[in-house]
Structures are given as structure tokens and as C-alpha cells.
Design goal:
Organism: Nitzschia inconspicua
CATH class of one domain: Alpha Beta
Protein name: Tetratricopeptide repeat protein
InterPro entries: TPR_rpt
CATH superfamily of one domain: Beta Polymerase, domain 2
Pfam family, one: TPR_12
Largest sheet: 5 strands, mixed
Structural class: mainly alpha
CATH topology of one domain: Beta Polymerase, domain 2
Shape: elongated
Keywords: Repeat, TPR repeat
Radius of gyration: 35 Å
CATH architecture of one domain: 2-Layer Sandwich
Amino acid sequence: MATSADHILEKAVIRCKKAQSVARPYSNKKKVKAGATVETKLAEMVAMTKKDDFGELTAELELLEQLVTNMQKGVLEPLLDSIETIERRMKSYQNVIHGNQDEFDESTKDSLPDFESQHESNGRDGHSSHKNGNSEHKKDDEEITGVAGDGCPSVAHERFLDKLNHFFEFQRTAEERLSIVDPQGKIAAMKVKSHSKGIMEKNGTFKAGYRQQDIKGKPVRHLTDLYQAAESAKPAFEEFLNSLIVALDFTKDDLIIAPLKPRARASQKAREEYTYRIPGPAESWLYDILRASIVVKSYKQISDINRYLKENVHIVECENRFTMPQFDGYRDILYYISIPYKDELAFVCELQIHQKEFKQYFGVNSHKSSFCQYFAGPFRDRVETIRDLDMLQQVGKVDGNLMEFLLEANDSNQLKLFARIFFEQLEETEKALELFKRVLTMEESSFGKGHVITGSTYQYLGQVLLSRGDADGALIYLSEAEKVLSKNLGARNPEVATVLTTIGDAQRTRGDFSESLREHKKALEIREEALGEDHQLVAESYVNVAQALGDKGDTKRGIAECRTALIIQESMIGENGVELAPTYIMLGKLQFKQGEASKALECLNKALELQEGAYGKKHLKIAETLDEIGNVKLEQGELDGAESSHRKALQIREQMLSKGHPDCAISYGHLGLVLSQRGDKEGALVVLRLALKIRTHIFGKNHLLTSNCYKDIGTVMAENDDVDGAMHQLKECLTIRKGLCGRNHPLVAEVINHMGRIKTNTGDAKGGISDHDKALAILEKVVGSNHPDVADTLQYMGEAYQKDKNQTKALENHSRALSIRSGILGKQHPATASSCVAIAGILEAKKDLPGAKMAYRQALTACLTSHGENHFSTATVRLRLGRILNREQEFTEAEEEVRKAIALLEEIAGEGDLRTAEGYALLGTILNRQSKFEEALSFHEKSLEIRKEQLGDSHPDSKVAEAAVAINRAGKHEDEIAL
């Protein structure tokens, strides 16, 4: 395919902008003259632009020529490469516009993919085309609004670039302010020296004696040790600071003593910056737990402080950050000083010296935290990182051109930085995966497979693959990461626990809940040993263990583990820290599984309150919590509340992301299920198909999230009596899940159970039994025979046997389900109540009325405990119990139960609902058998009116109601058959 001149010129402009980012200086006043080759070539190209109309490129080249004079050392080679590439493309451009299309340089052809291949690469990103038989969705995909394609920045891209612009604006402002605050460079030139002569050894390890000490004088093991020592050292630190300001004539207002650094932030900093320090642990190198600032007005005051510290305290480390600023451009002078306390103990504290006019001019750099992680750790030089971020800002988008440029690069650290940004900030998992694989190849070649740097890339690859739903692929890399990090850092290192946590998550995705629990327990054990019991990561591990226990069906122990996590977190950060929200959410989900819906909502609302207090009402985490609240309310039958919660979540996501974002598909899916419960099957299918369209567009057809859409659509179609359509959707779901998860997976069993229930409900009971038998075999193999999912399958099997008129087999399966549920979930769980109702129905059919009555009473007790009085399930069980009591001639109690049921049905379903009509008919019969004919007649007339309106005059139920009305008008007792 021929390459157009416009295409060549566009790529030359992009390459030129990237060259500018390489040439752009940072915090270095010395101007280094560029090589003669670069200057010559630039001059030739500028002259060339005046000959032909090169548009934007002319200005870009002139800017590049100016930047060259400010070049730093060490970047001439990549700049020369960029310039030579531009030169080749410009020559190709001239060939095109002057008619020499066939004389392209082969190297230019290689660097300029044609539009066909570019379209195919876009398909790999899930934006323009899809493999796996997905082409039928292409037209629909193009109609989705708000979904970012190649060259169309997503909301995540726009938000990131906004932060990046703010970041560089902060730096530029800092540079400008510096020229006012320190015009002669006196502060920047001031020498600050430590007494330690540096804490790093020549071999790259650190001096063990400069680790923080605990209150016994030994190196701290974890944050608990560190904070105990900090509390003990705090009075001595404050005393030293007060002596300093008195000696140097500062006012008390000039001294700012900060509270102890929050534990969560301390934990994060230790992991980001000191994980790979030898010797460890990482927490022993945290010097800023106790910290203070002094605000100065002049160079003399800075000099006085510097002299006082040299003479009166041991300076462990120091840095004049007016000479080399922080990564965000802020300037101060930093000291880490060892403060003696309690005999021979000492604690290293942080002291920052701020220049007043410089500090006051800057507020809080709200975007600093977004980039801090990319400057932490040993992997990338700060100046190089700044250049890479500047390049991304200059290009302004993540597209095929940028990927082409990156994949040509030979700097593994640079590629790793971009891969992390793509994955962590930009939702570009496909591109991140491609870059990480390239990085791994380079690192394995340079460092070997067993190097700690290579190990970190194994870890990233595992995380990216898991985020894409590829648990098997993730486990391959995560297992390698565990081996490498254990070998280099020690098997009990917290970073190894982080890898084990991700392995546990991958095992959960695979459906191997026992292995998931084992990995999370190992991670918890390491973290407790290495970090101490009072640590945020330890609390997170308790939550992970709780989730794994819940997956195995042991919700009671899971709830206990969540409560332990809450105790840890509250002891560290108080009762109102937003860090508690995920724990409350997990606790709520487990309580809901346990059948404690009201307690679940209490926990979820507490999480929502914490999040709204910290983030405001418009935040993506709040949308996730609203999802959980909506799901609980839907199961509780609170359709208004469920719909409201899911619509609020959708509104947040549409505002924060876009209508075509995959997170919006989550809300569409939930809303579809709510609408279906409301009886709006067509409306439900509309939003569920929209969710499917978005997920297919973004993830492709073969993805677990896409399979969920097929399942939901199939379920609603079945409720809408479209059996063929429903089975088609469920088969699509089954095919996807088998391909991704294998044949023996709980998610596969879930779909087979759905198909079996549809078959049972449409008269094919034997087909239903066969499907449930397959699902049962899978579940017993994967999760064991004593699991709630197994009990659910047994109940479905029992219902199928009932339809097949095999009451013995039905009772056998329902009894097994009841046994599992009573043992695991307890006698008061809604699922246990469901088993009791099913068993009672079979016993009633077999005319074992005492047995049925006992089972219904047990079901009613469970419903009242789990759902409360005002729930549809409670009303249903009351009606069925009333029916048995009536047949047992216990009329007083029967009437009491049915009246309670009717009052609730009138409130929930309405007076015109068929379920309410059933209650009216039953109450009429009970009153009739007590010879209360007039009152009985009034209820039978209500029942008749509803049934005629809903079902028509000729429906059998309407005919029964007519007969009951006639009998009561005649003042006669109803025949048993009329019941």
C-alpha cells in the first residue's frame, strides 16, 4: 500500500517532538555545545524546509535547533538517531511530492506501517477490529459513543495528561521563582555535608549501623517497632529543635513540628523506595517518621542552621535541593539527623529548611502523588524519568507512532517506565503487556533470569495478565517472580508476600479457592512477621483471607477475619479513616452471603460514608460501593432502592469516565437485572445488550466480563419466554468460559446450571437433571462436596426431579442441600429457608402435613431472622404455612399467618397483584371453614376481581374463584377440592 506524503510528514513531526523532549534540559544551567554532526544536519534540514512547504515541521525544527544549544551530556546519541530518522522521512516526503514514489528508502518503509497493518494493530488493542469471530460487532462498535480509539484520548488519558501538564507547570514556576529567591545562586552553591560520609557502600549496599533502632537498640523489624521508638524519641527531638531556634533567634512561628507520618504513607514509601535496600527491612530506612520544618527568610539563616547542625548533632544524610531539586521542582534543604534519647538510644529524624518566599508561593502540588512512584526505587535516573515524562507530554497521546518509537528503543528502564504508566494510569493493558515483554527480553539478556530487576518485571507481567483475566498466563510469570524475589530478598520479605497475594488472586480467578486461601495465608504470615501486627498491609491480608474463606463457603470465619482487620486499622488510623472502607465492603459482602442483609447494608453504608467524607460524592470508588448496595437491595426485593443505587453509580461513571467505558457496562448490567425484576424485560434487554456491546468493543468476545453479559441476557430472555434465544446466549457464555477457564471451573458449572433450570422450567425435566448432574460433578471436584454452590445445584436438581414426578429423588436432593446449608450457613440463612420450603412442599404433596408444617415453621423462623417481617419471602412462607394449618384445622393460627401475609403483599406487590389474590382466596377459605361466610365472601370476591382482570374470565383460576364466591353466597362450606 502506498504511503502518502501527509503520512510521512505527520510521522516526521511526531519524531521531531520526541527529539525535542530528549534535548530539553532539566535543572542544569551549564550549556553544552552539541556535536558538529547534529548542528550541520539541523542547519541543512532548516534550509530544506524553506524550499518546500513543510508546515508545522518548520517551526518544530527551529525550536529543536534552539534546544540543541542547551543540551546536556549523554543525550547526543539518541538525539542524533532521532534527527537522522527525521532526515530520512523528509527525503521520502520530497520524493513523494516530486513524483519519485518508488525511490523510498527501505528503512523508511520499515518505520512507516501502512494503514492496513496499522488497522490490524489497532484491532489487537480492542479498538477497531476483533478476532475470535467478532467481526459482526464492528458496525455496532463504531456507534458506541465515548469509547476511545487509537488517536482519540480516553478520559483516563485526558486526566493523566492534565496532571502531567500541571506537573511541568509546577516545575516551570519553580524555576522562575528560583531566579527571584536566589538570583545569585548563593543558596544553591551552599555546601551541606553529613557526618556519615554517605550511608551507601561502594558495592551498592547500605551501612547497617544507620538503620533505625527500636527501643531496645536493635534494628527495627517493622512499623510497630519504628513507631514505638518514634514516640519515645519525640520529646528529645522537640527539645533539640527548641534549643536550635532559641540559639539562632528564630521565633516559635518559624518552627513547624509535624505529626508522626501516617502509617499507611510510611508503609507505601518503604515499599516504593526501600524494598531493594540491603540490608533490610525496608521500614528500617524510614527517616521521616519524626519530622519538622524551619521557615527562613535569608541565606544567612540557612547558613546559621547548617553550622549549628554540624556542631550539635550527628548528620546522617543531607541534601541541598536548591542545587538538585525534588523531582517535582520544589527546592528546600533536607537533613536527616540522629537524635539521642534514653541513654545510648538514637532515632533519625527529618528536618527541612524552607525559604519563606519560595514556600509561600506554592500551594500543595496535588499531582505530585501521581508521579512519585515513578521516581522512587533504583530503576530509573530522575533526570531520565523527567525527560521521558516530558516526551509523553510533547506527544500528547498514546498511539501506534509512540509504540513504534518505544519498541525501537534499547533502554529497558525507559520502556519499563512507559509500561508502568500505560498499565497503572492509562488503562492501556495491551500496550503495557507488549512493552513489559520487550523489557523482559532485554533484562533477561542483560541481567539474567535470576536478577531482582528481572523479577520485578515477571511480577508486572503477572499483574497485567491477571487484569486481563488470563489467570493461567499470570501464574507462570508470578511463580517466576516469587522464586527470583525470594532468592534475592529472602523468602520472608514483604515484597514476596505481595507476589503471593497476586498469586492468590489468580488462583481465585481460576476457581481454585483452596489454593487461593493457602497463598493468602502465607502472605499474611510473612507480613505479620516482617511488618508487625499493626500494619495496613497485614490488615489487607486479613481481608484477602476473609474473601478466600467466603469463596470456600466459610463465611462465618471470613467475617471474623474482616473484624480482625478492622481492629488493626482502627488502632492505626482511627474509626473514620477511608482506608477502612474496603474492609467494611468485604465485611458487608460476607454478611450478605451469610444471610444478614441488614448488617450487610449497615457495613456498606458505613463504607460509603467514609468514602464520601474523603472523596466527595463523585468518585469511582463510591460507584463501586453503590454497586454492592444495589445488589443487596435487589436480592432483598427493594427494587426502588436497588435501581436508585445503580443509577447513581452509572451517573458517576459517565461523568468521570465516558458512556462507552467498560465500568459503565457494569452499571448497565446491574440496571438490566433490576429492570427485569420490575417486569420490564424489553428495557432490561436493551441495557444488557449495551453492556455486551461495550465489553465486546473493549475486551473482545473471549473475555470473562463479556461472558457475564451473555449469561445475563440469556437469563432475561428465558424470563421473557424466548427459550431458543436464551439457550443461544448461554451457549455463547459457556463456550467463552470453557475456553478461558477449562471445563472444570465453577463459572462453567454456573452456566450449565442456568441451562438446566431453563430446560426444567420449559418441560424438559430430564434435560435439566442431566445438566445439573454435570454441574454437580464439576463443583464437587473443584470446591468439594460441602459448599454452598453444591447445595444450590442440589436444590436445582431437586426441583427438576419434582417436575419429573420423582418425589423420592427430589426429597433426597433437597435434604442434602439442607444439610450443607444448615452446617455451613446456619439454620437462619435464607438459603436454608429455601431448602425447608422445598422439602415442606414435597411433604405436603405426600400428605405428610405434620412434617410439612414443621419444615414451614423452620423456614419462617429463618426468613424472619435473615429478611425481617417486611419481606416478600416472609409473606410467601406465611401463606404456605397458613395453607397447611388450614388443612390441619388449626384455623385461628392459620388465619393469623395469612392476614399478616396479606398485609405485607398489599404493601409490596399491591392490591391488584395475583400473589395478593392468592392470599385473599386462602383467607376466604379459612374463614369459610369457620362458618364466617360473609367475610369469606368479601375476600373471594376480591380474589375473583383480580384474577379476571389479570388472567381473563376463562382461566381455570378465575373459574375456581367464581365457584368459591357462589358457595359462600349460598352459605355453604367449601369442598377440599376448591382449595
